[in-house]
Design a protein that fits this description.
Number of helices: 5
Strand order of the largest sheet: 2-3-4-1-5-8-7-6
Radius of gyration: 17 Å
CATH class of the largest domain: Alpha Beta
CATH topology of the largest domain: 2,3-Dihydroxybiphenyl 1,2-Dioxygenase, domain 1
Length: 258
């Protein structure tokens, strides 16, 4: 199992789910990915629950705050990127035309977090690790595997994340699909940016989890009360699908090729 002990600054490194149905989410994702769960006992943690894959932290989930529900914000997966200096990264985001939704704050002794938006409005959380590095297992069935930005301007997004996270960009011709921008950290592929798929969809970051068999996982999602938004299809990295969980939070899965 590909376990990690650290994430290079600039790398997408953690995911957590805000949901209106914690018990349902545990049943759904536990049934799909084989996760076990541990809820932080400190009341100040607000029910933050770690999703464990074979004893390693794979992701997390938490009850959606009532103010978000009142604003009509749907249940969703939140993507985090590791930074070395979160105050500097937030300053760089503001200077590059982004917004700051949440200023840097301490999360107990786990680390420091902030929430920013890029110039197109896509939301990204930043994480400066303390005791918690983020995902302790990646690129495995049931683990975080890939981050994908859907945006209205790939070039502008590449410039922004270059300034904030030190990412470099490589534009690739995808034929009938147009272009895709590969995002790299220290020469390593860590994410991609593509044009928005679907009418009325806002710019956003999305996440892929690994599975052993995409078609079998899609069938299991239906049994668990989820839905299929994009049916299984083959792409160069593997076979993928886009899904929604029991309350509609969107995520993707992929069975990696090779």
């Amino acid at each position: 199992m590909p376990t990690v002990e650290s994430h290079a600054p600039g790398t997408p490194s953690w995911l957590d789910l805000t949901t209106t149905d914690m018990d349902g989410a545990k049943a759904f994702y536990g049934g799909l990915f084989g996760w076990d769960f541990f809820t932080e006992p400190d009341p100040e943690a607000g029910g933050y629950t770690m999703a464990m894959l074979n004893g390693k932290a794979a992701a997390a989930m938490m009850p959606q705050p009532q103010e978000q529900i009142d604003m009509g914000i749907p249940a969703c997966w939140n993507l985090y990127a590791t930074v070395g200096d979160i105050d500097a990264a937030v300053g760089a985001a503001a200077a590059a035309g982004g917004g700051v939704m949440m200023a840097p704050m301490d999360v107990f002794t786990a680390g420091r977090m902030a929430v920013i938006t890029d110039p197109a409005g896509a939301v990204l959380c930043l994480w400066q690790p303390g005791e918690a590095i983020g995902s302790e297992v990646v690129n495995e069935a049931g683990a975080f595997t890939w981050a994908e930005l859907q945006t209205s301007d790939q070039a502008a997004a590449a410039d922004f994340y270059g300034a904030v996270l030190g990412m470099t960009a490589e534009v690739m011709d995808m034929g009938p699909m147009g272009t895709m921008t590969g995002l790299k950290v220290a020469g390593k592929d860590v994410a991609s940016a593509m044009d928005i798929q679907g009418d009325g969809v806002p710019p956003h970051w999305g996440a892929y989890f690994g599975v052993a068999d995409t078609d079998a996982a899609v069938a299991r999602v239906a049994e668990l009360g989820g839905s299929v938004l994009v049916a299984p299809m083959d792409i160069p990295p593997g076979r993928m699908a886009v899904l929604a969980d029991n309350v509609g939070a969107v995520f993707s899965i992929i069975a990696l090729a090779g």
